[in-house]
Design a protein that fits this description.
The protein is built from 20 helices and 16 strands. It is an alpha/beta fold. It has four domains: about 120 residues, Response regulator (Rossmann fold), CATH 3.40.50; about 160 residues, 3-Layer(aba) Sandwich (Rossmann fold), CATH 3.40.50; about 90 residues, Helicase, Ruva Protein, domain 3; about 40 residues, Arc Repressor Mutant, subunit A (Orthogonal Bundle). It has a five-stranded parallel beta sheet with strand order 2-1-3-4-5, with helices on both faces. Strands 7-10-13-6-14 form a five-stranded parallel beta sheet. A two-stranded antiparallel ribbon has the order 8-9. It is elongated.
Length: about 450
């Protein structure tokens, strides 16, 4: 990718000379004559390197250096000065400048300084991105999946420009699958960005997705990059895509078909090199028939469709999947296998993981048994249910005797989890179902560690 550079200098001759020189190198150049304009362009375009004159008509160049570093800590800043002294140089470095060059500076020297600074910036950004990917995807990479499903993931990964539609109930692991597709694709080194289309108000969703220009609406005091720009070169996951607001649907269709979009309030077309993965627990065909979703967008999204069956329909996969989801050092007793297979798992993989982690805590290093799983007894087969019932009357857990009675805090946790699952994570609707205030629900979600 070409280097992106911002030049902030009030001298038009210097500004235009540097602009023409960098453009001759096929670099992306943005020019500003004031500190205010320079900060706006930096926020809008996220350059690799900024060249800042020490004296500007509306601000001290060092103040601009400090502001730019606060806005983007990874931005490399080169300071130009015709009258720099040692104290100024020291202060510039302390504020985060990568180098201070004295005017007049030879263009080949400046080119080398910019190239080296840009290389360091990209290395830092790539390292940061790789660390985030490692943290975010360690669990996903180790989750077991059947060979037939892995072949579908590999097919989707190889075709890195084709939209993918993931269908499945809540908790079936659509986000994990999307990440796995991204990580195995040629786009793996670029960002993976996800947005839940049902979690934002319609007025905010377009701004989050496409970005906005300064003054596009009342609170738009500065321009903002949208997720399409942040995910440049990578993958954008649109979760709960059936809830995508009608106004955004034709814009998304244009992104998929032509690779262009406009920010909210903007007129300039922008290129978008992004792979779209859409996920939903609602049949999109139903949304099309009801007039809530565009048919042409539906046809474009379903080029490659992967359906994730609910866990209750994949009983042979539950035990190997559970073993891959266990916390490090935890293990399942043989008696727990029947309990896991016999339960319906309405919350699918998400519920399975939560149950296993809670059980591992209760087992405290011992093999996990049906008692630790604490699944509803009627879901167990006769022999396992009898064994669990007998064990429950005699097995102490954290100083209590478990006798088939669900602790109040666990009942509350399950009720809240069920409500959130039933409403697709919409906390306002979940609170209404539970008959409590939204603020009360938010407090309980934080206290119980639910997400």
């Amino acid at each position: 990718m070409p280097i992106s550079i911002l030049v902030v200098d009030d001298d038009e001759t210097v500004r235009e000379t540097l602009g023409d020189f960098f453009q001759s190198l096929d670099w992306i150049v943005h020019l500003a004559s004031t500190g205010t304009e320079g900060r706006r362009l930096a926020t809008e375009h996220s350059p690799d390197v900024a060249i800042v004159d020490l004296r500007l008509p509306d601000s001290d160049g060092l103040r601009l250096v400090e502001a730019l570093r606060a806005d983007d800590p990874e931005l490399a800043i080169l300071v130009l000065s015709g009258h720099a002294d040692v104290a100024t140089a020291v202060r510039a470095m302390r504020l985060g400048a990568a180098d201070l060059l004295e005017k007049p500076v030879a263009l080949d020297v400046l080119r080398e300084a910019v190239a080296q600074a840009a290389e360091r910036v990209r290395e830092r950004r790539e390292l940061s991105h790789l660390r985030q990917r490692q943290l975010a995807h360690d669990d996903a990479a180790n989750v077991w999946a059947p060979p037939s499903f892995e072949r579908l993931v590999e097919l989707a990964a190889r075709n890195a420009d084709v939209p993918v539609l993931l269908l499945g109930e809540s908790g079936t692991g659509k986000t994990v699958v999307a990440r796995r597709i991204h990580d195995r694709s040629p786009r793996a080194k670029a960002p993976f960005v996800a947005i839940n289309c049902a979690s934002l108000a319609p007025t905010l969703l377009e701004s989050e997705l496409f970005g906005h220009e300064r003054g596009a609406f009342t609170d738009a005091r500065t321009a903002k990059r949208g997720l399409l720009e942040i995910a440049e070169g990578g993958t954008l996951l649109l979760d709960e895509v059936a809830d995508l607001v009608p106004a955004a649907q034709p814009k998304l269709l244009t992104v998929i078909e032509d690779g262009v979009f406009r920010r909210v309030g903007g007129t300039t077309p922008r290129r978008a090199d992004v792979r779209i993965i859409a996920a939903t627990n609602t049949p999109l065909r139903t949304a099309v028939d009801e007039g809530r979703f565009r048919s042409d967008l539906f046809y474009r999204l379903q080029v490659l469709t992967i359906e994730l069956a609910p866990l209750r329909e994949r009983q042979q996969e539950i035990v190997p999947l559970a073993q891959s989801l266990l916390p490090r050092g935890a293990r399942l007793a043989a008696s727990a296998h029947d309990a896991l297979v016999s339960y319906d798992w309405p919350g699918n993989v998400r519920e399975l993981k939560n149950v296993l982690w809670r059980a591992a805590i209760l087992a405290d290093g011992a093999p996990i048994t049906p008692v630790h799983l604490a699944l509803p007894l009627p879901s167990l087969p006769g022999s396992a249910r009898l064994s669990a019932a007998r064990a429950a009357t005699t097995t102490p857990i954290r100083g209590r005797i478990v006798a088939g009675v669900t602790p109040l805090v666990e009942a509350e946790r399950r009720a809240i989890s069920d409500a959130l699952r039933a409403t697709g994570g919409n906390k306002r609707r979940a609170a209404a179902l539970l008959g409590i205030a939204r603020s009360t629900l938010l407090d309980k979600v934080r206290r119980l560690g639910l997400t």
